[in-house]
């Protein structure tokens, strides 16, 4: 699934995403709010969905080689988070949906979890 499709499925606002990112092929998704779980849920070429909005989330996702972050539940990212995301070239998406609903919408449209089930 392309990142551009995820943006549409989640009706996402996009505070940071370069045009080249829109065609990224996303292999799976992981979801968590705790940092340890974010690392466990992250995988190369995957997207992370979380309600935890912090610079640390961006740093953790960079270490795990995740290609995008979706902040759920209508949470907003501040300029510091956007600056770090730009530094690492990790697109940031914001959705009004809960973590559960956002994951469900992606799953219903064919994106699988990062647990090897794709």
Task: Summarize, please.
By secondary structure, the chain is of the alpha/beta class.
Q: Which CATH class applies here?
A: Alpha Beta
**What is the radius of gyration computed over CA atoms, rounded to a whole number of angstroms?**
12 Å
Uncertain stretches: none
Shape: globular
Describe this structure in words.
The protein contains five helices and five strands. It is α/β, with parallel strands linked by helices and 118 residues long. The protein has a single domain, classed as HprK N-terminal domain-like (Udp-n-acetylmuramoylalanyl-d-glutamate--2,6- Diaminopimelate Ligase, Chain: A, domain 1, 3-Layer(aba) Sandwich), CATH 3.40.1390. The chain has a five-stranded mixed sheet with strand order 1-5-4-3-2, sandwiched between helices. Helix 3 packs parallel to helix 4 (79-88). It is globular and about 35 Å long. The termini are close together.
Q: Which descriptors would you attach to this protein?
A:
118 residues, alpha/beta, 36% helix, 5 helices, five-stranded mixed β-sheet, globular, Udp-n-acetylmuramoylalanyl-d-glutamate--2,6- Diaminopimelate Ligase, Chain: A, domain 1
């Amino acid at each position: 699934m392309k990142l551009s499709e995820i943006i549409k499925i989640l009706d996402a606002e996009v505070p940071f995403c370069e045009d080249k990112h829109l065609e990224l092929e996303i292999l799976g998704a992981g979801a968590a709010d705790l940092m340890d779980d974010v690392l466990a849920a992250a995988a190369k070429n995957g997207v992370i969905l979380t309600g935890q909005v912090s610079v640390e989330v961006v740093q953790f996702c960079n270490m795990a080689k995740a290609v995008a972050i979706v902040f759920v539940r209508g949470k907003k990212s501040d300029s510091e988070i956007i600056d770090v995301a730009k530094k690492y070239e990790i697109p940031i998406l914001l959705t009004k949906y809960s973590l559960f609903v956002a994951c469900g919408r992606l799953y219903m449209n064919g994106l699988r979890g990062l647990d090897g089930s794709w």
